[in-house]
Amino acid sequence: MENFETILYEEADAVATITFNRPKAFNAFTAEMKKEITQALKMAERDAEVRAIVLTGAGKAFCAGQDIKSVEPSTNYGDLLREHYHPMVRALDAVSKPVIAAVNGVAAGAGMSLALAADFRLMKPESRLVSAFLGIGLVPDAGFMYILPRLVGYAKALEIAALDKPISGEEAVELGLATECIAAEEWEAGVQKFSQKCAAMPTTAFSLVKRYMMDGMHEEFAVFLEQEAQAQRIAGLTEDHQEGLRAFQEKRKPKFLGK
Q1: Which of 25, 95, 120, 203 could be bridged to 258 by S-S, CB 3.0 to 4.6 A?
Q2: pLDDT digit string (tens) for 169-222?
Q3: Which helix (H) or strand (E) holds 108?
Q4: C-alpha of 178 from chain center
Q5: Hey, which CATH number is domain 203-250, 1.25.40, 1.10.12, 2.60.40, 1.10.3470?
């Protein structure tokens, strides 16, 4: 097991939890933290025992974005993205397993970008998603402008990016940005319940849905239909499919193993 300095990595009941662990700095990104998150994501993806991944923050925040104290006036932001942020979001994009962002507090700037890049977002009523980029004269980055319009449409995405209005847990659910809004007193149990639900999915089929649904947003329809056929062929050869058929015939809940 890796020894991390800025994050915590735990595995339990087929779920890997990656906790951003700089609570005094509201879990703001440093170069080391981005590197460690990338390593942890790759480690969880390789681990056959892990069937779902949770991203969350220690303390009151999910992630406040870039740690401004670590940025020099002469910083080349293009290089910062290419060398530090892009490897992290690419690693997240490459994960075939369900990824849940458990947004326990504010997710601002690139912290919001990382939450958007997850497959599912859980929020508390008092949690907040905040773009925050234009407020310091920058454009949204770390995949923000690619993913957000695909979630909420162009007009709403532009509004969120430009106006910097914080989005609460309830509002995020209404917009389709969050899957569930969980009360603070039920937070840990709610996150665990949802992550266990994801871990119980037929993970090969899920990975194919994840891959081809995104591809289908920019492919011609005829091309997509062939990709759909290929995906279904692969899913049809899995043990999970056979288990699903048996469970349906026996009128019971299937027990998928990700095989």
Answers
A1: 203
A2: 999 999 999 999 999 999 999 999 999 999 999 989 999 998 888 877 777 767
A3: strand 106-108
A4: 11
A5: 1.10.12
